Amino acid sequence: EASEFEYRDEGAWLRIPGMDIKYDREGGELTYSHGSYIMTLLATLDLENLDERAIPVKTTVNFKVDNGRRGLSSRDYKRFRTLLGGIGHVARWTHPEISYAVSVVSQVMNNPGEEHNEYLMEITRYLKKEKNLSCVIRRRATRVGLIGYTDADWARCPDTRRSRCGFAFFLEGNLIGCQSKMQKSIALSTAEAEYAGLTDAI
Question: What is the pLDDT of residues 174-188, one digit of tens each?
Answer without folding.
Answer: 888 888 888 888 999
